[in-house]
Write the structure tokens for this entry.
Amino acid sequence: MSFPPHTSLFNEGNGAGAQTLDVSLGPQHPSTHGVFRMNVRMDGETIVKLQPVFGYLHRNHEKLAERNSWLGSMPYTDRLDYLCPITNNWAYAVAVEKLAGIEVPERAEYIRVIVGELTRLQNHTVFLGFILGDMGSWGSALMYAFREREKILDLFEELTGARMMVNYMRFGGVRCDFPVGWLEKARAYIETYPAFLDEMESLLVGNEILLARLQGVAPVTAERAINAGLSGPVLRASGVDYDIRKVDGYGIYPRLSFRVPRGEVGDCFDRFMIRLLEARESIKLLQQAFAQIPAGPIVNPVVKQRGFKPPVGEAYGRIESPKGELGFHLVSEGGEKPYRYHIRPPSLINLTLLEEMCLGSKLADVMVILGSIDIVLGEVDR
Amino acid sequence: MNFPGSGLIKGMWVTLVNGVGSFFDPQRSKRLITEQYPEERPKLAEASRSFPFLIFDNDPEAGIRCTSCKICEKECPPQCIFIEQDKDANGKLFRRPKVFNIDISVCMSCQICVEVCPFESIRMDNIYEMSSYDRFGSLVVTKAQLLKSNEYYHGIHPTEAATTDARIEAARIKKAAAAKVTAEKAAAAKAAAAAKAAEEKAVSEKAEPPQPEQTA
Amino acid sequence: MSSLSPEIVLQRIHDALPKARVELLNNPSPSGQHAIRVHREDVLEVAGLLKNDPELLLDYTSNVTGIDYSDHLEVVYHLFSIAKKHGPITLKVRTGDRAQDVTVPSLTPIWKSADFQEREAFDLFGIRFEGHPDLRRLLMWEEFADFPMRKDYVAPDDYEYEPTPHGSIVQKIQAHSKHASASSSTNA
């Protein structure tokens, strides 16, 4: 039996690197968080070269947005980071409100914080489950996480009509108010959530196997993280104190008090623990928002949603989504459709250092590193 | 107590409690949450939405609320609505749709058509078992399949339907009041014109009294 | 967050690099994010100054956008400072035209976060970044020839037969295939 001649995955022609093995961790893979492909060259089990291949979920959302009206792009933003549709909607609404100078009423801002922090909770919950699945726990921890997440999705369904693709934010507010009894249900749920976090922590954090697989793997220094444009929990795990909710102070976040957890080393364990701590901070934020929410209008009545025409100009608006800094760069020529609509995807930029982080590690670590960055392909490829 | 392996044992204790506890969970809401579909159907929230439908009042032909204004067709982001306006017996355009198709393989349930409709005629249904074996035909839902009565709407979304009915009623009262005002104004104008004409006639009759009829 | 005004940035650039061709562009919208346009031959120097100047310390490139205008292409960078917590500063660089003269210097050696985003601008608009360590297509496949986000891009219309085509799509399919039938578009 003879094997075909060794062809490289890296466009180097035949026969290159014949002592090494080229593997395509191809788009169909249970641990790549979507259709994500990595061409990897290994010397034994150690990675010597890694190139990510994008575009398997590319739907050219940015070109579709030039065809749709400003409101018509809102349901498409649901499908960017499809695990956190509300924060995607929020980022787009913030960018349009910056472009057109629209004010948001107070109750709408509190509603946005409540549903936004619930989204952060369910994202970090599902992150916990997935990273354990990546490490080979065969889905049992994943199912605990999903069981918890379902309760939050049920709350969203009662509020907006859809569990995930909610299409909830509007320019200058939100689409609909809480139905009768929703606030009490949400409050009651937040009382039970810390018990889930405690259970997961007792399951995971002392676990020797988990510590061995996460600690010391792929540390990233703060300077490198800043230069590479990392954002969100990945940046803060490297020790950088930068949370857009504190820095930009958008919405009513300046009124709410919360801490920003920071890591020390920037390895996978820091990126893992920081999300658990952020979930606890989100619970504090939610409790404050529940206590302080006033009555009032839920959308700015001056703004026409259908046939919306912002002034000429451009704006870049960003928020702290659960994955990092989600920004929209909008260019308007005063018409009903955007001239240019660009999304700054946190998941794509967080992958900038993927090769650096994986060099020298083993193949099994690649999955853990990718899992700790927490990407969603809908955002990477748009 | 921290001996090597204690973390593992603590973790396995959690899974044991979850596993064994699922047999003894009385409300099935804490540990065992799988719904045995299709024997158990999920209880949908009131706001739950799947695909649009059209509302008629009392009669599917005469009571259809849609006037074929095509705003939903224009605003639909994935462009899945197809409307053709009806023509009456003389060939003149009539404010009712002849064709109203929604391609549910394209529809993304975003609910923007509901928000922009000025006539309260399209709303979101919550049926979700719409798969078919016919790949090329039955995913286009036609007007006949979309038309459902207002009572059906009250059945699936009671709060929303009540608000919509109140809005329609308020609009109807406002329109009736405005029509009444216009009618009164018109009647008053007509009466004033008639009075003026009678006055002029009286003035002219006074100036020239009518000649008595002369017999030959 | 304290905001840094583009006028101050322009002043620093004039002081340190008097020969650099920079100008302030007014942004008429309420966002107030006025941009600084830099000539592409000076942009590497200006970017180095923006990153290292002790008053500005714009060490974080958040966003890189490509824009297609009718007679040229443009690259827009949004810069922030994590050390001083200010921003955004909008930097714009223009190409010569849309056909031949589409090269601008790459800012990846200064800010690594521009790496994938410049590749995306190359892929979707055709802007070539000189000095980029690995300028390949990002989202489209390697053999793809056109630039999808340009305004004059024509999408190919040889559709695979979709389950429920309508209207203009039926005509396109029929133009390509004699076997496709228009039976799925029915009347009520």
Remarks:
- The two ends of chain A are 44 Å apart (CA to CA).
- The longest strand of chain A covers residues 313-321.
